[in-house]
Amino acid sequence: MNMKDFLRSLELFKKLSDDELQHIETYLAQKTFSPGQHLFRENQPREAVFLIYDGKVELYKSTPMGEEKR
After folding, report:
1. Euclidean distance between CA atoms 48 and 4, whole angstroms
2. Whole-prediction pTM value?
3. Phi first, then psi: what are they for 56, rounded to 5°?
4. Given the DSSP bridges, would you call strands 68-69 and 61-62 parallel, antiparallel or unpaired?
């Protein structure tokens, strides 16, 4: 699946025109992450939006008691 078709498959981008999707594509960078590698950490400034093209992501949140909840 090419990137434009991938974007169109997402509810957020579903109704955009081809020109709008092409404009968004110019800002995308494809990255590969290793298993266990963190994409971001809780309470850290966000510098990017991640669209998961292939694979899975697990999210964890720290409780007030310091435990990690999945």
Report:
1. 19
2. 0.69
3. -135, 155
4. antiparallel
